[in-house]
Write a structure and sequence with these properties.
Blueprint lengths: L22 H7 L7 E6 L5 H17 L3 E4 L6 H10 L1 E4 L10 E4 L6 H9 L3 E4 L3 H15 L3 E5 L5 H7 L6 E4 L2 H4 L10 E5 L5 H14 L13 H13 L5 E5 L5 H12 L5 E4 L15 E6 L5 H13 L6 E4 L7 E2 L2 H10 L5 E2 L7
Parallel strand pairs: 1-11, 1-12, 2-3, 2-4, 4-5, 6-7, 6-8, 9-10, 9-11
Antiparallel strand pairs: 13-14
Length: about 350
């Protein structure tokens, strides 16, 4: 049987500079009295799980050589994916696109047992870069399913993380997407019921859904520990602090990044006059600055700090002062590299182990 050829490396089109209105034109359109300032959220950007996953691909390329296949986007950020593609990573949708016997990395969002089995069936060498906090939720799903409980998985159906968690115990799991579904979901035994959640959701919306579920099912169990990851909670807390003072909030992050999208929603809910998500600084519309005294800036948990720097430089060009960092938490969590990769690094004399955020904030 012929082997399916690998997907070609995608080469992004060169970015075309925007033809912008000048700072003077923007200022004239809606004059602002007093200084214009920037409130920069901290924490922001890379979390430990993202850092671990990205470095796992980088180290795999360094020690195994290109190509290294990656199932799905290693993290949900177009800049990171493009950079890794340029170094020799090939991103595929499913394991059957990977040549038999090749090396494939599972993304930070996790995979179901069916995906693991598919890789084994094709004799693929695997590196599991699933975030340890997602792995925790997987283990909870397995444990509660074995105990005979029905699991209400709060999350967005179709998201890779939800697909992976659901796949651990599909016969015991029902996905609850939103408050409306929480009001109508049917369960078999309300006394053997537990909720779990996608790690990157809005903390407030998740708790709203749990409140609705508990009103309907008073014996609903909580997970042993909070499933919303520390990075998601911290980034939302930071933007909640900034939003009431912000005329405009800019969130750097990709459209398929759940935690980035949630940051826009949280900013608006907590008082920002306007909030937008962009992948790159050149996607910012300078007309957003008209009449704006204070801009809040943050980024999702899969965004490298270099992209924030580009946004701050653009704001400086339009008269905004040096960024004032608003610190609401400090992050010092470290995750070791995937075990499959650690053995290779030890053999090569590479002593890389614990990984955290690449830029410490706070």
């Amino acid at each position: 049987m012929p082997t399916r050829s690998a997907a070609p490396v995608s080469v992004p089109m060169p970015r075309i500079p925007r033809q912008r209105r000048s700072p003077a034109e923007v200022a004239a359109a809606a004059p602002v009295e007093g200084p214009q300032r920037v409130l920069l959220a901290a924490p922001r950007g890379y979390c430990a799980g993202v850092d671990r996953a990205v470095i796992a691909v980088e180290k795999a390329l360094e020690h195994y050589g290109a190509p290294v296949y990656v199932r799905k986007q290693i993290v949900h950020n177009v800049h990171v994916v493009s950079e890794l593609e340029a170094r020799g990573a090939i991103f595929v949708e499913e394991t059957d696109e990977v040549p038999e016997g090749a090396l494939v990395v599972f993304s930070a969002h996790g995979v179901s047992p069916a995906v693991v089995q598919s890789a084994e069936d094709r004799n693929l060498r695997t590196i599991d870069a699933t975030c340890p906090l997602v792995t925790k939720v997987h283990r909870e799903a397995v444990r509660f399913a074995r105990a005979g409980s029905q699991i209400l998985l709060i999350g967005h159906e179709g998201h890779e993380e939800v697909e992976g968690t659901y796949g651990e115990a599909p016969e015991h799991t029902t996905v609850v997407n939103n408050p409306a579904e929480a009001r109508t979901v049917q369960v078999e035994d309300p006394d053997k019921l537990i909720w779990l959640s996608q790690t990157t959701l809005s903390v407030d919306e998740t708790m709203e859904i749990v409140t609705i579920l508990r009103e309907r099912f008073p014996n609903l169990q909580d997970p042993p520990s909070d499933d919303i990851c520390y990075a998601t909670s911290n980034r939302q807390a930071a933007i909640k602090k900034i939003a009431p003072d912000a005329d405009l909030v800019i969130v750097v992050g990709s459209a398929n990044s759940s935690n980035s999208v949630r940051l826009v929603e949280v900013a608006l809910e907590y008082g920002a006059r306007a909030a937008y998500r962009v992948d790159f600084a050149d996607e910012i519309d300078e007309t957003w600055f008209e009449g704006v005294s204070t801009v809040g800036v943050t980024s999702g948990a899969s965004v490298p700090e270099v992209l924030i720097g580009d946004v701050l430089r653009l704001l400086s060009e339009y008269g905004f002062g040096e960024a004032e960092e608003v610190v609401t938490a400090e992050e010092d969590i470290l995750f070791s590299l995937p075990k499959e990769l650690r053995a290779k690094l030890k053999e090569a004399g590479d002593d890389s182990r614990g990984l955290g955020g690449r830029v410490k904030q706070g």
